Amino acid sequence: MRNPCRFIIRNYSVVPRLSTRLFAQCHVPQAGPQRLDVGHMSTYQGYPHRLDVRHMSTPPPSDEEHFFITTPIFYVNASPHLGHLYSAVTADCLHRYKLLQGFKSKFSTGTDEHGLKIQQAAESAGKDPLIFCTDVSERFKRLFVQCNISYTDYIRTSDPVHRRAVERFWTVLQDKGLIYKGSYEGWYSMQDESFLTPSQVADALDSSGKDIKISLDSGHKVEWMKEENYMFRLSAFRRPLLAWLRGNPGAIQPERFYQDVLQWLQEELPDLSVSRQRSRLQWGVPVPGDPQQTVYVWLDALVNYLTVAGYPDAHAQWWSSAHHVIGKDILKFHAIYWPAFLLGAGLPPPRTICVHSHWTVGGKKMSKSVGNVVDPVEKSGRFGTDGLRYFLLRQGVPDSDCDYNDAKVLKVLNAELADSLGGLLNRCTAPALNPAQRYPPFCPELFAAGSGGRATADDWRLLEAVHGLPAVVGRHYETLHAYKALEAVGGCVRLTNGFVQRHAPWKLDRGDEGDRRWLDTLLHVALECLRTYGLLLQPAVPETAHRLLCRLGVGPGERSWSALSFLPRARGMACPFEGRALGADCGLLFSRLESLDTDDRKPKRTLKRA
Questions:
Q1: pLDDT score for 64
Q2: CA dist., res. 56 & res. 400, Å (int)
Q3: Element (H, E) at 322
Q4: Given this model, what pLDDT does residue 206 score?
Q5: Entry pTM
């Protein structure tokens, strides 16, 4: 395809299929006997600053709470590119986060398969339109499987169930007097499948120097079109749309896109053509009661969200918690046309429309004609599934375009996943420091302030930062600012590396009782930090987080958001991991990548440990 609240909606129980394959890969030992000494720390006694445990977890949702997250359905005129994957990974991250919170979450994606552009592409390829669409749709499916996109619903607009939903939706609008037979005359972009007003077009020259008109939004060529078709009374919805947006300032995020839509609504809205003559467009849903007309591709495509929700039957439960993730190029269709259609049909607009910007290459928009389209299949094979996911979420900023290049990918992945996080795990679980391969005990007396304590002010700052991290990360996941969430985690990982480096546990004398207990305490704190990072990273890099948690001996039932209780021993509480055997050493957490060779061969992965 080409709101009323901020993300404070709680939903969904965990879907078991997300973890079944991963948990089969690594044995997690059972919990061992728990030991607890609370004689010196019944609360946070000894800490220079009291730590606020309210940040540690979010209350679980009730059984009735649902969450419905969608990507756009992707147009099958070409193979998937990096921007498609970014939309999918962004939605997948939020979906996984909601599942970890215990919400019942539905996540839909799919392909938009109707329209004149597809009809002509199939004709040029000498294929039946459905066969042509199926081939491209399968490419999207393979990409999503390869990149661990955990959708619950995959919809195609060629599906019979979707056709029935479109027919019902059309009939409801028509019965309400919102669709009428008329004549449309104006500019039309076949490339965008979009009708344009005179203010939305400009003069330009084509490659041969011929004068043409183009869309100001997309730059695609437009043509003057005049034909009899059906019109939707969009002009009647300017004020209702303004009332909806002003009453729900979080309906469109980020803020800059909300302001863009408000600005568009300062002008009167012309009625919208919602059909094409069947003689010109056969590949689409016929207008109910008029086989000479075909439903406009955008009306057809937008209804996919309702189809997945169960429309026209039992859809209210899911639709009331709908959130859309879209690219900025299709904002007008989702923030003006779609809410107007919904309001006309007596349905509420989506709770939130989350907009992201584009990925560029060398500062230029990706284009087949320019030859700078980034193939996500090739890149995920080169950098790994989690590697590409991490880069997109770490570098993608919703309200501004982001530039892609391979050198930047290598730099980010090596510095943050291989060296910083992977190096910390390797160091703290290495037999040289942890010969028993267990989660060592924590000594409250040695970590207390004052006489006998060895912890420093920097150590307290680390503990406070990690205690507050779940609240920070959760807030950023909620608002689809994953880059801020990953930045916060990365900052704490660096602090933890500094903590280990500062105390140099490898220099301690194991023969000395005090040094041995301090070494165990240092490792316990570091492993608790790593466990927290592993839990928080699950929505973004699920396979890497799984390997990390497996290595720490954290079982499948100990990985929910409610398990984010950092360093309970410091609060006089039992730690279920203390004394437990670590999981099997399955190798490096994330292999360091070498620079690309000049002949563009795949980078080798080094096997050196940190």
A1: 57
A2: 32
A3: strand 322-327
A4: 80
A5: 0.85
